[in-house]
Amino acid sequence: MIAALVAGLLAGYGIAMPVGAVAAYLVALTARTSLRTGVFAALGVATADGVYALIAVCGGAALASALRPVTLQVRWGSAVVLIALAAHGARTAIRRYREGRDGTRAGRAASGAARAYLGMWAMTIMNPLTVVYFMALVLGRHTAAAPERASQVVFVLAVFVASASWQLALAGGGAFLGRALTGSRGRLITAMASSILIGGLALHLLIAAL
Predict the structure, then answer these.
(1) Minimal CB count within 10 Å: which of 53, 118, 143, 181?
(2) CB-based contacts of 11, cutoff 8 Å, min separation 6
């Protein structure tokens, strides 16, 4: 149970930390409306991450028993996918930093609390790389043994809590913390930190496969 909690928290922060257009818009939305609207918008982002984690856990649980004979290959493949995602995130962040793009344009969304929640949820759910990320993690962790239902629930909830805490920090930080993190240097630092975290998760899978 503790392992599922820690894995969920790390996975949640790994996917939430890169400050892209959605996070930059979240900060701008909170600054021009209210903290209440920002909180609902942040929860919309976290809900999307939780939905993808749930999809990955359910799909991974269904595939785990079938893939157990090739556990070693699946873990190596999962690690490769995570490393590729980490490298892609780092490369994209470095390119954007060199080009000086601040990524603050994410389109116009409604500023009402409920509409902000749904708008940010929709903006986040359109990223298919999220489900690839979670599926790689879930398959890498659970091909050796069938996961318990309680552990699955804890993992998904931990992902939601981690994502929500990060998004709420961006919204609550407002003009100071939020804008610092959404600047060129802040985006680079958070993206590199996320890539290092995802790389660490991949390394853990590789060590388990040895």
Answers:
(1) 118
(2) 53, 133, 134, 137, 155, 158, 159, 162, 201
Task: Look at the block and give the residue holding tokens 């080009």.
Answer: 99
Whether residue 27 is predicted with pLDDT greater than 90 in this model: the reply is no
Cα separation, 87 vs 16, whole angstroms: 16
Query: pLDDT of 151-183, one tens digit each?
Result: 888 988 999 999 999 899 888 775 556 566 666
Q: Cβ(153)–Cβ(109) under 8 Å?
A: no
CA–CA separation, 200 vs 186, rounded Å? 21
CA–CA dist 170, 34 (Å, integer)? 13
CB neighbour burial string for 155-192, b if at least 16 within 10 angstroms, e if fewer: bbbbbbbbbbebbbebbebeeeebbebbbbebbbbbbb
The alpha-helical segments, DSSP class H, found in 33-148 are 35-67, 71-99, 113-125, 129-142
Max intra-chain CA distance, the chain: 54
**Residues with Cβ < 8 Å from 67, sequence gap 6 or more?**
74, 139, 143
The rounded distance, in Å, linking the Cα atoms of 67 and 121 is: 32
Residue 79, Cβ density class (10 Å: 0-12 exposed, 13-18 middle, ≥19 buried): buried
Distance CA 148, CA 67 (A): 17
